[in-house]
Design goal:
The protein is built from 1 helix and 9 strands. Helices cover 12% and strands 33% of the residues.
């Protein structure tokens, strides 16, 4: 009887740990397109709340990308110098507004999914490290 209760308790804890709110809101991404603080980012690994866009076609190089989203980071200075390098972002409630000067050009077509993010130094499997 103790084993049954113990197994039931372990199963209950395992089910609770699978709750979607416990999933890290951090991902490794790379830049697909960008102009004037507007970015199309592709998730390489990790998880962000929100449904990512699959089958998005770039208006510039005609390539099709999966796991992408649109974001706006006009004053972000912690991005890699090489756009093919990956970096880490976490989803936030609202995008931060900056006081930097931004040009007014716009992406020709943005993915359907928009997620407000901020750049962080690293993501861990069980959480976030700034």
């Amino acid at each position: 009887m103790k084993r049954i209760i113990g197994c039931a308790l372990v199963a209950l804890l395992a089910l609770n740990s699978c709750d979607k709110t416990d999933i890290s809101n951090c991902a490794e991404v790379k830049i697909v397109e960008q102009i004037c603080g507007q970015y199309v980012l592709q998730v390489v690994s990790g998880n962000l709340d929100g449904k990512l866009t699959d089958g998005w076609k770039s208006a510039y190089d005609e390539k099709v990308y999966d796991n992408v989203f649109f974001t706006y980071m006009p004053c972000e200075s912690n991005l890699p110098d090489d756009p093919s390098e990956t970096f880490f972002v976490k989803a936030v409630e609202e995008r931060t507004t900056g006081d930097c000067i931004v040009c007014r050009a716009m992406l020709a077509n943005a993915p359907e999914t928009t997620i407000a993010v901020e750049v962080v130094s690293f993501c861990e499997a069980d959480g976030l490290t700034d």
